[in-house]
Amino acid sequence: MKLKPLRDQVVVVLGASSGIGRQIALDLGEHGAKVVVAARSEEGLASLVDEIDTRGGRGTYVVCDVVDPMDVERVAEAAILTFGRIDTWVNVAAVTVYARFEDTTPEEFRRVMEVNYLGQVHGALSALPRLRANGGGAFISVSSVESSVALPLTSAYAASKHAFEGALQALRRELIAEGAPISITSVKPATINTPLFNNARTKLGVKPKGPPPIYHPGVVADCVLYAAQHPVRDLYAGGAARMMTVAQTIAPGFVDRMLARFGIESQRTTEPPVDQGRGNLEAPRVEEGRAEGDYEQQARRFSLYTWMETHPAARLLAAGGLLASSAMLWSRR
Questions:
Q1: What pLDDT is recorded for position 315?
Q2: Of 16, 139, 241, 295, which shows the fewest CB atoms inside 10 Å?
């Protein structure tokens, strides 16, 4: 399976008006891709396309609620009409609720599942026929470390991420069996400095935050740009995400106790909730049309682990150096 360089690609980014999706779209435009961006906030999308064009890229936008499959179909049709094809499809749209499991209503569980799970499903159902028609391409799901390691206070969000991870695995295996030249990638970020924490619905009485360490949205964008050009199964945005999944696999009981002890307080601030904690479950918050959130001073712009993931030659070289050093030490002994 061979994917095109970004300068020759048309890329759809679903959920692009702010946060991770916005950063991905900006970086794609800077690397020469033609970008079709979609989200609920027309104001955020219009400013994003202006920014893409100002930086020398080419972009267009479609207002879309991922809960509506016809809206998502219109995004795909607009991409074909404007640029003639789709080479890569990136699903990012997500919402969340910060609350204890028993304080989360059935309606909130349902809405989070509709956006985070069914929104991804709708994206895949629209993307796959267009990728086949184009002779192949990449489908990239921006998931979360919570697709395997659920944090306290975010049960609805974790459930939605677990759900689509299962669907994505089944889809990947079906495409392999079919021999379809479509790459399926799950990108799993750690805590990222985006407006998600301002946009979240919260019942904590304070503004929520993610557990440290916190990474810049560009760390996730680097994963997506790599996956758009190289078939890869999973990528972890931030070494902390990989460490958490390894710990969950080998010592789940230990992770239970650690997150029970530290996971709740690490997600609380001392600030009042934004907009009384209503969040963007039902409608977008147009005030947050930006990629970065409020933790710029704490956010790491570089992850060595992620850099090694997206630079396999350097990873092999490092592994070879480690083996050579080990052999020298052993011979001296």
A1: 66
A2: 295
